[in-house]
Amino acid sequence: MRVLLVEDERRVASFIARALRENAYAVDVAETGEAGLEMARSSSYDAILLDIRLPGLSGLEVCRKLREAEVETPILMLTARGLVEERVEGLDAGADDYLAKPFALAELLARLRALMRRNLGRSGAKLRYADLEVDRHRRRVLRNGSPILLTSKEFALLEFLMLRAPEIITRSEIVEHVWDCHFDSTSNLVEVYINRLRQKIDHDQPHKLIRTVRGVGYSLRLEA
Predict the structure, then answer these.
(1) Can you say whether the dihedral through the CA atoms of 83, 116, 147, 159 is positive or negative?
(2) CA distance 67 to 156
(3) How are strands ordered across the β-sheet holding 126-129?
(4) d(Cα 152, Cα 139) in Å, to the nearest integer?
């Protein structure tokens, strides 16, 4: 899951980003409303954490502009404690939820999980292709009824392949969805993780699912 954090206080942003990464999220950080707006418009995110008080373009304005541009990514607004007006304005601007500062990290993570669960409705909490099943709520994977243990990054990669199966997905699309904007384009991490998934998903299976389309990308596809 990829998250955009828009927060101008560097210490706060660093703390939140580190916590999210430790919980298997890919995180991009913007320090201004203008930067956050541009990143949210140009990249695909599973959720946006948006501070309401930003220099220049405020969080409220960013939220309004995103909704006007029909960006439907769930937005969690970070507001000052006790200012009910800010919370109301944030929700009216199109935010999905709000969290008052200072907040407990556990509550932030819980609110983020809840937002993403509500957003799963479009594609479903359980993904199935052939004899492979992914439970996105419980983060559980089964193949032919047998559990498969995946790391958080392996799970994110498989989830993306499942969402698009049996389409071919380019390497750049995988990088954009599963890793953050600081990904080294010369790295072979995508290939490494595809191979790890193959070992866990396809090993000893009569029908292979993970395909490499040379010069194009990868797909989850059952060959006839």
Answers:
(1) negative
(2) 26
(3) 126-129, 132-135, 140-143, 146-148
(4) 9
* CA neighbor of 64 nearest in space, from 101, 100, 89: 89
All structural domains of the chain, each given as residue ranges with its CATH number in brackets, are: 2-120 (3.40.50.2300), 126-220 (1.10.10.10)
| Distance in angstroms (rounded) separating the CA atoms of residues 146 and 81 | 47
Burial 21-37 (b: 16+ CB within 10 A, else e): eeeebbbbbbbbbbbbb
The overall pTM is greater than 0.70: no
Q: In the chain, which residue ranges form alpha helices assigned H by DSSP?
A: 10-22, 33-42, 59-68, 84-92, 105-119, 152-164, 171-178, 189-197
Q: Tell the residue number behind the tokens 């389409």, with chain if given.
A: 167
179-218, pLDDT tens digit by residue? 776 777 778 889 999 999 999 999 888 899 999 998 889 9
